Amino acid sequence: MRNLLFAFFILPFVFGCSSHRAQFKGNAFEKHTSLTKTGFTQEKLDSLNNFIKQNLTTTSMVVLKDGKVLFEYGDVTEISFIASCRKSILSMLYGKYVENGTIDLNETIGEIGIDEDMGLTALEKTARVHDIINSRSGVFLEPVNGGYDKENILKRGSVKPGEYFVYNNWDYNVAGSIFEIKTGKNIYKAMEEQLAIPLGFQNWNIKNQKKKYKRSKSRHPAYHMYLSVLDMAKIGQLMLNRGKWNGKQLISEKWIDQMLTVVTPVETVNKRYKRNKKSAFQFAYGNMWWLVDNIKQHPDFKGAYHASGWGGQFITVIPKLNMVIAHKHKVPKLVLWGLKRGNDVPGWQYWQLLYDFLRTDANNTTIKQEKK
What pLDDT, on a 0 to 100 scale, did the predictor assign at position 372? Predict the structure, then answer.
């Protein structure tokens, strides 16, 4: 009887989370028909495939080299939760509205009308949009979803907006509310118009996109996104192309540069995440994009950046290699619902994989990964 009751309870959620078919056909990436000029051999790519299969919980991965598919792993059309990669995508959507004056990065959240049922203080309401999109609001409230850094959260009112960086989904969720208030557009509709249609997403359906609400915690929902790794790769390629696609400038180069300008330096990020100058993997933070400061001192990764999401969701751009990597670990539903612990792909392991197999001087030997 208990199992039957559980089934009645859980089935609506299972069917409610099923994916809808693509709205339109989209445009497939070209594939490399020869590896001659790529710097890779089939042996090298087979070694990468075998290592992932034997050592990681990766469910899908695409590597683009010179705008063409070099490597695929898993079901690259499967749609699933991309976690905090949503923030980097929202940053891209902000661009045109910042540049046409619809969104003023210096406007305060108080002026916009952002508040909570418990009330924001006068000081908290002085946080600017710029502070919000860089998680420097100084508003230390719990969001409707996870992503609340309890170790680094301070007492309310202890710092002024803009002074202190802490990764808190309250800020990012409010960034979504600000976008919709100021533009009058639903985030997912804007995403469809600015990205899905012009880039020719192959697995897009707006019905797959779902916000998370929990009014008892916050007025501001999390704008969760669900994409295939192929469509994530298109987002990365647009960034590598500096906002241009098929001859059209979809995002201005000026905004690309602003997103990739350091706002929170590596020293601050290291302090929050207990890293130091000797750590193998170090990052700064821009406008909702993580900026590579150091990957084992290797020159190939200088100027690289990525979107990163809980569980193993990544969109990585490596300009020096003219390469984009999209990576997914499909988080099981019971893990998403907090009913079971997951076995994800942590950031250090993902970057170790890129270092071991994709740098220009990587060899073909079997690699044993160790956390640094």
Answer: 45
